[in-house]
């Protein structure tokens, strides 16, 4: 079955289609895609993965046509970027 694997950095993105056997897992698709050779700093032991925007485990089974996404670690606090503060006493 055909699935895709995607990962993006601000300066570089990759979307790879890959053929995997029926009953393949997210991990199987990532390994078959070779994306860890394209992005050697990927660390699947710490980075989250998903399918169509929903977090899943590396051992989740895939269905034909699904898009596996490897998410970058958050490098900034979204609350600070929005100007939110922790003081809710207003």
TrEMBL record:
Q: Name one Pfam family in it.
A: Ub-RnfH
Gene3D superfamilies in the cross-refs:
RnfH-like (3.10.20.280)
The organism's superkingdom is given as Bacteria
- Return the InterPro entries for the record: Mopterin_synth/thiamin_S_b (IPR016155), RnfH (IPR005346), RnfH_sf (IPR037021)
The UniProt entry's sequence similarity note says: Belongs to the UPF0125 (RnfH) family.
Q: What is this protein called?
A: UPF0125 protein MIZ03_0875
């Amino acid at each position: 079955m055909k699935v895709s694997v995607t990962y993006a950095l601000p300066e570089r993105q990759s979307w790879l289609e890959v053929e995997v056997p029926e009953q393949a897992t997210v991990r199987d698709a990532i390994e078959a895609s070779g994306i860890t050779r394209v992005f050697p700093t990927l660390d699947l032991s710490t980075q989250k993965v998903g399918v169509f925007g929903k977090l899943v485990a590396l051992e989740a089974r895939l269905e034909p046509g699904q898009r596996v996404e490897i998410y970058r670690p958050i490098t900034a606090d979204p609350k600070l970027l929005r100007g939110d503060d922790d003081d809710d006493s207003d």
